[in-house]
Amino acid sequence: MTFKKRGVFALLLTLCLSLVATGCGKTEVQPQQDTTAVAKELSVGLIPAEAKIPAETLEKFRSTLETSTGMKIKMNSYPDYNGVVEAMNFGKLDMAFLGPLTYVIANHKGGAKAIVAKTAKGVPFYYSYILVHKDAPYNTLDELLQDKKNVDFAFGDINSTSGSLVPGVELKNRGVFRSKDDSDFKSVVYTGAHDVTALSIQNKKVTAGAIDSSYFDKLVEQKKIDGTQFKKIWQSDKLFQYPFAVSKSVNDATAAKLQDALINIKDKEILDAFAADGFTKASDQDFEAIRKVAEADGRLK
């Protein structure tokens, strides 16, 4: 290669390296989330461990949401409370119907945001009950605990607020319960659902059980259980109701559209499926009391 050719080659090489270096040093601008454009498609999940929702009612709910929002709605089912939380955290769900504790966990783990809560008897509050069969000799929780060695106790799903967290903390504070395998009771079971707990008490398969007051009332109203067969021996303080929450990736415009659609649902068949008589606006702050109980019980890690 002649000197002249070598000089031209060196110049070209220098120019190429300069262009590459410039490109590598360039800062890529990340696109910001559009907070005004409403999503075209949405994936929705429900906690599965409540009184079961018939397929035709679930389709009616999906269709109602689709019509009122203009979005394509896809419903998803999961085997337990935790499955819904994990699906939302991993971006598989855009919105979910959650229990209060489940919501607090989803917010803690993945930034989920409450947009509405259901109402029962016109208010967004409910209670945890401990119930026994009417034939049981106990009229108070104190009386039950005096006979604890003969008590088969039922919780609902382990991640249920009214069926596990709140009554569990009460029993821990009374020194009779530490875990499923470590308690002063004859036995402890987790039924996985409020309707199963209620039927277990009614059929005398367990001595006592913890249940959501709204679901208990709805099961009685729908004649799925006989309300005359139960005695309430303990009731919690007021708890804020179950929310619909959106994932942190859902923008403000989409969240507002969903909030309006849910609040405007008046169909009794759909509302009954959620043991509700309506939905009202909700925010993360509404669940602060439950968050504190969850933290104290070591549920937020």
Task: Please provide a written account of the structure.
The chain is of the alpha/beta class and 301 residues long. The chain has two domains: 41-124 and 240-296, D-Maltodextrin-Binding Protein, domain 2, CATH 3.40.190; 128-236, D-Maltodextrin-Binding Protein, domain 2. The chain is 40% helix and 21% strand. It contains eleven helices and 15 strands. The chain has helices at 3-24, 55-69, 81-89, 100-110, 141-146, 161-173, 194-202, 213-221, 252-263, 268-273, 288-296, and strands at 41-46, 72-76, 95-97, 113-119, 125-126, 128-133, 152-155, 177-179, 182-183, 187-190, 208-212, 230-235, 239-240, 243-246, 278-281. The strands form four sheets. The protein has a six-stranded mixed beta sheet with strand order 2-1-3-14-4-15, with helices on both faces. Helix 2 links the parallel strand 1 (41-46) and strand 2. Helix 2 crosses helix 9 and helix 3 packs parallel to helix 4 (100-110). The longest helix has 22 residues, at 3-24. It is globular and about 60 Å long. The chain starts with a helix and ends in a 5-residue tail after the last helix. Residues 2-31 have low confidence and may be disordered. It comes from Tumebacillus permanentifrigoris. InterPro entries: PhnD (IPR005770).
